[in-house]
Design goal:
Blueprint lengths: L1 E5 L2 E3 L5 E8 L6 E8 L5 E7 L6 E3 L7 E6 L4 E6 L8 E9 L6 E3 L3 E5 L2
Parallel strand pairs: 2-11
Antiparallel strand pairs: 1-3, 3-8, 4-5, 4-9, 5-6, 7-8, 9-10, 9-11
């Protein structure tokens, strides 16, 4: 089982990035996908969630209207489009897969660093 994030980097405030997370080794379409982030010195927080068939999405209040989660089950990939980035969005972003019916089955990626700085 693997979740491999990519797309992080250094961006100026107001800029945009698109994170990707490619899954392998499990039935991607049977999993709810999440993006979490962990800022320096802080705990990990949920950023966005998308259900198995993309029928429902959730975005945390701090990113609502700026970030968009999406997925492509054929490509086994989940995306996080980030726009209007702020200093406080600086964090390591993690991809998480949680089984639709057995929530205790969960996988994590190793994360990708997003740094918002001028």
């Amino acid at each position: 089982v693997q979740l491999v994030e990519s797309g992080g980097g250094l961006v100026q405030p107001g800029g945009s990035l698109r994170l990707s997370c490619v899954a392998s080794g499990f039935t991607f379409s049977s999993y709810v996908m999440n993006w979490y982030r962990q800022a320096p010195g802080k705990g990990r927080e949920l950023v966005a969630t998308i259900t198995d068939n993309s029928s429902t999405t959730y975005h945390a209040d701090p990113v609502e209207g700026r970030f968009t989660i999406s997925r492509d089950n054929a490509k086994k990939t989940v995306y996080l489009q980030m726009t209007s980035l702020k200093f406080e969005d600086t964090a390591v972003y993690y991809c998480n897969a949680r089984h639709l019916r057995v929530g205790s089955i969960s996988f994590w990626g190793k994360g990708t660093l997003v740094t918002v700085s001028s």
